[in-house]
Amino acid sequence: xxxxxQPHHQLNVIFxxxxxxxxxxxxxxxxxxxxxxxxxxxxxxTHANALIFQKAIDNDFSNGYPIRTQLIQxxxxxxxxxxxxxxxxxxxxxxxxxxxTMGILLLKDQIxxxxxxxxxxxxxxxxxxxxxxxxxxxxxxxxxxxxxxxxFSTCAMYSVRKHKPxxxxxxxxxxxxxxxxxxxxxxxxxxxxxWVRPDSVKEVRxxxxxxxxxxxxxxGALYHSFQELESEYVQLxxxxxxxxxxxxxxxxxxxNKDGGQSQELALAKEPEPEWLNWLNSKQNESxxxxxxxxxxxxxxxxxxxxxxxxxxxGHYFILVIRKIDGDEDGNSFLQEFEHRMKExxxxxxxxxxAPQLLILDHPAIGGIVTHCGxxxxxxxxxxxxxxxxxxxxxxxxxxxxxxxxxxxIGVPVxxxxxxxxxxxxxxxxxxxxxITEAVVRFMGREGESTEMRKRARKLGDAAKKTIEEGxxxxxxxxxxxxxxxxxxxxxxT
Length: 493
What we know:
Layout: E1 12-16, H1 21-36, E2 40-46, H2 47-62, E3 67-72, H3 76-79, H4 94-105, H5 108-118, E4 122-126, H6 132-139, E5 143-147, H7 151-163, E6 175-177, E7 186-188, H8 202-216, E8 220-223, H9 231-241, E9 244-247, H10 251-257, H11 263-267, H12 274-280, E10 287-290, H13 300-313, E11 316-321, H14 328-344, E12 347-351, H15 356-360, E13 365-370, H16 374-382, E14 387-389, H17 396-406, E15 410-412, H18 432-443, H19 447-466, H20 472-492
Helix pairs in contact: 1-10, 7-9, 7-17, 13-14, 13-18
């Protein structure tokens, strides 16, 4: 795919995604949007990661859009990994995850060489590559960092780092209020990211310090969000970070709206899948969709609690389970559970991968149980769906607070501890009684539930309007592209 894209005056932008699903997917869709609006786009990535989205890129290219991938070699042998282990989602143990992370760090020299060879007018890089600020400075071009989560989480994280409201508390379960936010938000130390806690590993803390320091030296930030969703925090972000930002989300909805093929649709080949027939047999808004994203690993004990909690609620559900979760006993239990659900017609299990966008858009879906990953939140919101919140790690507990306390379109399931999956023990974090209670409360058709659904539908409408011509995300993208073109012209003249 290495070919030249015509005129010298055309804006040439490099996108550098971080190889983790929640980071990579929205950035790839954003890169595709740039290309759809006339920007020559190059995505730098490794071979195995390119396979995840290459079909969508090939489709865009065949439709005449100036987009390509530039492949670099992942140092698998150097870090002791088998071929193909190039994405954070492949880290099925702490050891493997550490090797993948090291391999990503070792890509720096190859990436910088591509920057020099391709001579871009701008680089858009994931926030996890702080060193790209220096790369952009050497080339005399702007660096935009891409943040794949909410403005709210950024502002809350900044305040916690600055003010340390968790200090001098009696215990790590005692609540504190995050200072400096437009809303009163309470959390506990156990809900904070592991790297920010008092007992965090120094090296990890320093790596995040480098990320935050690089933000202030960037030209600006691209956010996978939209103005109408969290306008107060868009304003707060600018005042605390001191740089501009452009909200361009929700990008997956935008790609689909423009008649493009989403990465997911490129993978969904079945003309009439069984899950669709099952959903078609259900009433509108009667089914709960349960999915925990690509990185979450649930212990066998937690899967058992989840299964019983859903069954005991009495409501229909679709549950997505990865075969990597649980052990042999766990799989035996899940197979028995799946058989029981088929007999009762109450639940449907999808193994490994589910076409989430297609499922969320089905009229039978009444809501989603989410791990509060931002991509899933925006996809659910675009479909006008409320959420049961079950955060696991990273900034997901902040996202839960946005859904539950600010937007009021979420019901918490009771998750209490921020814990990346490789740190999880065998004890369940959330009990079946809590799961059942949340589902019954959420799927009800009375007061609180009804109002929550109205608010979710209103946000869904706003998400659709923001990407239409004249909408805020549309205008932001057009203004940014025009500004980058002006910078290029100034540099030439």
